[in-house]
Specification:
Length: 836
């Protein structure tokens, strides 16, 4: 056994040397937070022994997801539900160097997320383990490190699968930071900022700061909390003298008045910064920034959600954490792109389903203006898959839930906490242990046994007590936000409801039961925590478009359809769900419904309902896995935004004489008129609560054109031509200048066109990519839920005419050239650049 106390004493002694210092130290950095993402050594499964022997097996940078590099197989234990990609046990190691001066410091390592079952070792001491793959955590390395070379090793075990109902990814898939502080410092997540009073003239910013003193005696210090405006200009502050005892963390409460506050709104999400400074003997010994916002909100039983006094319908989407072909390896630009695409559609809400997101995702949501539901768990004690978190729940739930709230409670974008999604504790006997989750879903949603509910006269059940406990943990740490949960049992005798511990009643689906909410839950605000679950494959259309496909058809029979495709006419949905139009119609028209979170914004890897292998990613998205909007995206845009929308679909490449349903989504117009080869097919108008119009016409090659008009004047026009044979490639980057920071991305849309530039809607050409200069191919995709091609290859087949290549900067500055080639097609080259 190594002894650590000597190192600790040395650290304390040198701190005091430091604090009796001269002006040079006064300028020293009080806290350093550096990225530890670069230059890790990695090995998987059998190769790990080599890494542990000190051999370099493979060098890589974090965030990293080894599963996304793997090969799809029906035999992978994750199953199609988990994305059919491999799991395993991975080891990571990294050397880092500390200076002599660092002996005076506290040395911490912060992991934002490791999936899953991580164990962390520093210089061969194990410092801790964390089963939950979505939680952020810190270890104090101080007793185990020394000046010079130190070695970190991380074991990640995602070998026991299935442990998730969707694709989890594997590895250290979020950022890692090395943090150095003085022994008197602001604790991890050590600020709690609330705004108890907000009006036009003034806002009271209440700050509770947790300070730690790891020296050998009580110290007198000074705590300054400054509020900086969006331009980082100091506008208000509070200074307090504090005595910090040497053992327990100390909480200090301050109140700061901000004059004429600029409120955080969805349109202008103004962020302030709270800057915390700790001084001892006039010397700055710690400085810590907390981004914050000022807003008021309320959930009302009759009128739903109010932000800054204004009624706002929550038009939200649920999202899982994968970033398509990049897997779960977090990347700020990839997340930002998702949010930009959603924002363009009119989305104003984001549910982190069903687990804590990357902290940078919340930073983006703050800065871009979304109404966030931050969710803790997909299961409690009752499992949903064989090896899931339910195995760790008893031991870890309190810690994980606490850490989630402590980490996230300063984000102005978060408006509610969810303690769980469709946990099986809603029922007394949930039967899911013996059924696969799709069958259980059908059974529990559609054929419930009343005996599985709480019995009215039997007092508080264990499940209700657990609900109460979890809600209590959250409320104890953050009484400013309501607690909810996603329930797929709408009966008031659901054990979660019977706990009377939820502040907002949340239903997943069950729109038919909304009418009973005011009488079943008098005085309670209500939200549709999850809605819709409509199914669509981008580019695929099943006619007639007015016939509905509710898939899978039965809970006890495997579902099969030879197409492995779901229609993009909004006429296909899960049994327990509804079409997009149905769900929105209900939410739009009921004032007491605060809003909805649609399942889902983007497709995600895993859960390929209604199919199974070779399907391996979801059909639920409004946007496909590659980030290409499906048609219904424009239905929402026409309803949820003010901009003029006119979207005509499908394409115009059919068999001669084939009867085709043509739909249009539009807004800001009284009527739309369709022309086929110049001949009018009639003027159409949407009736009340209708969201599209349709014409049924026989196909004849040529041009279709739709015009929208208001007061007789043309608003927009759209035209689609019958495409000829594939002849050329078009490359369209979302950004042609990216940062030379080693992480920035350009998402390049690849389209197969005929010689006249029309998109070939059936094209499946294989496109090869060659990159030169300051970037590499980070991933490729085409949005097909059944493609078994590698996400990491440098080629991709087009899917309904399109695919995607993602370029990532390689850390150098300079030119980038992307060349796309495909047999029989004219090549295409584009130039981009990476700049500091
Ligand atoms: C819900 C569940 C989601 C997803 C969805 C698919 O019941 O909360 O995680 O499985 O069904 O329709």
């Amino acid at each position: 056994m190594k002894t650590t106390s000597g190192i600790v004493l040395a650290a304390i002694a040198s701190f005091f040397l430091l604090s009796s210092c001269n002006s040079k130290e006064k300028e020293a950095l009080p806290r350093e937070r550096t990225s530890l993402n670069k230059d890790w050594n990695f090995a998987l499964n059998a190769d790990s022994a080599r890494l542990l022997n000190g051999e370099v097996v493979r060098k890589l940078n974090l965030p990293h997801d080894w599963a996304i590099e793997g090969t799809f197989s029906e035999k992978n234990p994750s199953g199609c539900g988990g994305g059919a990609l491999p799991g395993g046990i991975g080891w990571y190691s990294k050397e880092f160097t500390l200076e002599d001066a660092d002996s005076a410091k506290k040395i911490f390592i912060d992991f934002e997320g490791v999936y899953m079952n991580s164990k962390v070792f520093i210089n061969d001491f194990m410092v801790g383990e964390r089963p939950y793959g979505y939680i952020s955590f810190r270890y104090d390395l101080t007793p185990y490190v020394h000046p010079g070379k130190n070695i970190l090793k991380v074991r990640v075990d995602n070998s026991e699968q299935p442990n998730s109902r969707w694709y989890s990814g594997c590895g250290i898939y979020r950022n890692v930071w090395l943090v150095k502080t003085n022994p008197i410092y602001v604790d991890l997540w050590g600020t709690y900022v609330t705004t108890p009073v907000v009006n036009e003239k003034q806002a009271t910013v209440k700050v509770v700061t947790t300070l730690k003193n790891e020296t050998s005696e009580e110290v007198n210090a000074e705590l300054t909390s400054l509020v900086l405006d969006a331009k980082q200009k100091e506008i208000a502050k509070s200074v307090s003298a504090v005595k910090i005892s040497k053992r327990d963390p100390q909480e200090v409460t301050q109140e700061i008045q901000v004059e004429a506050p600029v409120l955080w709104t969805l349109e202008n999400p103004t962020m302030y910064t709270l800057r915390t400074q700790v001084r001892k003997d006039g010397i700055l010994i710690d400085q810590y920034d907390t981004p914050m916002g000022i807003r008021t909100f309320q959930f009302d039983a009759q009128k739903g959600f109010f932000l800054n006094g204004k009624q706002v319908k929550i038009k939200g989407v649920c999202m899982h954490h994968d970033l398509g072909c990049l897997g779960s390896a977090f990347n700020v630009r990839a997340a930002e792109r998702q949010l930009q695409i959603l924002k363009e559609m009119g989305v104003n809400g984001f549910r982190c389903s069903h687990n804590p997101p990357a902290p940078e995702m919340l930073d983006l949501l703050d800065r871009m203006g979304f109404i966030v539901m931050d969710e803790a768990f997909d299961m409690w004690r009752k499992r949903k898959t064989t090896y899931d978190y339910s195995r760790y729940f008893n031991q870890w739930h309190e810690r994980d839930l606490t850490d989630l709230v402590l980490r996230d409670r300063n984000h102005p974008s978060i408006f509610m906490w969810s303690i769980g999604n469709e946990v099986l504790e809603q029922w007394t006997d949930a039967k899911a242990d013996t059924l696969d989750i799709q069958a259980a879903n059908l059974l529990l949603n559609l054929k419930r046994d009343p005996n599985a509910l709480a019995q009215e006269d039997s007092g508080m059940s264990v499940n209700s007590l657990l609900t109460k406990k979890l809600a209590g943990v959250v409320r104890g740490l953050d009484p400013t936000r309501p607690v909810t949960a996603g329930n797929n049992e709408s009966n008031k005798n659901n054990h979660l409801f019977r706990a009377k511990a939820l502040d907002i009643i949340g239903f997943n689906y069950h729109e038919y039961a909304f009418k009973d909410v005011p009488s079943d839950f008098p005085g309670m605000p209500f939200i549709e925590t999850e809605s819709t679950s409509a199914l669509m494959t981008r580019g695929y259309y099943r006619m007639p478009s007015d016939s509905l496909f509710a898939w899978p058809v039965a809970w006890d029979k495997p579902f099969y359809d030879s197409t492995f495709s779901c229609s993009s006419y909004d006429n296909c949905r899960a049994q327990w769900g509804s079409t997009h139009e149905q769900a929105w119609r209900v939410v739009k028209n009921l004032d007491f419904v605060s809003g909805m979170y649609i399942w889902t914004g983007f497709d995600y890897i895993g859960e390929p309902t209604p199919f199974w292998w070779p399907a391996r990613s979801s059909y639920f998205g409004i946007v496909d896995l590659a980030g290409f909007p499906k048609d219904v995206y424009y239905m929402y845009q026409s309803e949820w935004t003010d901009k003029d929308v006119l979207h005509l679909f499908p394409h115009w490449n059919w068999k001669p004489g084939e009867i085709v349903d043509l739909w249009a989504y539009y807004n800001n117009a009284d009527e739309v008129e369709l022309f086929v080869n110049g001949k009018s097919q009639g003027v159409k108008t949407k009736g009340k609560d209708e969201f599209h119009v349709m014409w049924r016409v026989p196909f004849e090659a040529g041009t279709i054109k739709v015009i929208s008009r208001k007061n007789g004047k043309e608003v927009l026009t759209r035209e689609i031509k019958t495409a000829g044979e594939p002849a050329q490639i078009r490359l369209t980057p979302d950004r042609s200048e990216i940062a030379a920071d080693g992480t920035d991305l350009s998402f390049v849309t690849v389209e197969i066109l005929d010689k006249d530039g029309n998109l070939c809607p059936w094209a499946e050409n294989l496109v090869n990519f060659e990159v030169e200069g300051s970037a590499f191919v980070a991933g490729v995709d085409n949005g097909s839920p059944i493609s078994l091609e590698s996400f990491k290859a440098s080629n991709r087949k087009a899917f309904y005419g399109k695919c995607l290549v993602v370029l990532q900067n390689n850390g150098t500055e300079g030119k980038i050239q992307l060349r796309a080639t495909s047999e029989g097609l004219q090549n295409q080259t584009i130039k981009l650049k990476a700049e500091e």
